[in-house]
């Protein structure tokens, strides 16, 4: 039954994506950029409904009051494709720095360009990265929320963290609050797997780290704060969902945490 529900959800998820992009294209490209954001926001909401209805997976968000007004940087843990769209209903005007190859996808790339996302060649250095930073500053000056995954790529729940220093440079240069976000959707929507698990989990939005720290201090503060919250949430999530099939990284980390707290 688990695999049947997973297959049904995956089919519905991609059908929903394609259908909405095609049907809503006239509206999306005829209205202003901010009005057009209603399309991806509602697409995200419909995905949550599909997860709840077909798979039986629900979630709740704690700490919405910690999101500051105006421009800020969201710094969530990144474990699953779910992370890339899940918070859109609660974001006013998000902007992503994403690999330029995504712009080459028919229709999807046009949607991305309409929202003025920032493409980058991952292998670029020097002048190209300076241009990306200037573009980021311009978008942030309009009060947008930049989404950056501090570890750069998806990591399985409980894995040894591998934070990248780039977020510290952006924090130094842009001078806006950074909002750490702890969550473990990878326990329910695992990376590189088609199975989807039922259950309930929390997204925990932490108090923002305000601008003004030197980059090294900020970097250590972000890592310490986010990993502590992630460890606490891992224990809570597993205890609330005893049926879950845990990846080896989560099993190992849970054993370490329980030993530390014994």
TrEMBL record:
Keywords: Acyltransferase, Membrane, Transferase, Transmembrane, Transmembrane helix. Pfam families: Acyltransferase. Residues 72-186 form the Phospholipid/glycerol acyltransferase domain. SUPFAM superfamilies: Glycerol-3-phosphate (1)-acyltransferase. The keyword Manganese does not apply. One of its GO terms (biological process) is phosphatidic acid biosynthetic process. One of its GO terms (molecular function) is 1-acylglycerol-3-phosphate O-acyltransferase activity. The chain crosses the membrane at residues 12-31. Pathway: Lipid metabolism. It comes from the Bacteria. InterPro entries: Plipid/glycerol_acylTrfase. This is Acyl-phosphate glycerol 3-phosphate acyltransferase. It comes from Pseudorhizobium pelagicum.
């Amino acid at each position: 039954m688990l695999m049947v529900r997973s297959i049904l959800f995956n089919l519905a998820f991609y059908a929903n994506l394609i259908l909405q992009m095609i049907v809503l294209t006239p509206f999306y490209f005829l209205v202003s950029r901010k009005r057009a954001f209603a399309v991806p926001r509602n697409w995200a909401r419909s995905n949550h409904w599909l997860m709840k209805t077909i798979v039986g997976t629900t979630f709740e968000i704690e700490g919405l009051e910690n999101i500051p007004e105006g421009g800020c940087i969201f710094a969530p843990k990144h474990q699953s494709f779910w992370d890339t769209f899940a918070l859109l209903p609660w974001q006013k005007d998000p902007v992503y720095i994403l690999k330029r190859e995504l712009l080459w996808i028919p229709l999807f790339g046009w949607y991305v360009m309409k929202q003025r996302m920032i493409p980058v060649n991952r292998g670029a250095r020097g002048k190209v990265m300076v241009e990306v930073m200037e573009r980021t500053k311009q978008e942030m000056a309009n009060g947008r929320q930049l989404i950056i995954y501090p570890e750069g790529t998806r990591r399985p729940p409980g894995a040894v963290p591998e934070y990248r220093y780039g977020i510290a440079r952006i924090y130094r240069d842009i001078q806006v609050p950074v909002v750490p976000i702890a969550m473990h959707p990878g326990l329910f929507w695992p990376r590189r797997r088609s199975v989807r698990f039922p259950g309930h989990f929390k997204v925990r939005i932490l108090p923002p780290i305000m601008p003004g720290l030197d980059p090294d201090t900020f970097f250590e503060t972000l890592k310490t704060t986010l990993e502590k919250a992630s460890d606490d949430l891992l224990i809570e999530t597993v205890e609330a969902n005893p049926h879950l099939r845990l990846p080896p990284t989560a099993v190992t980390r849970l054993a370490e945490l329980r030993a530390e707290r014994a």
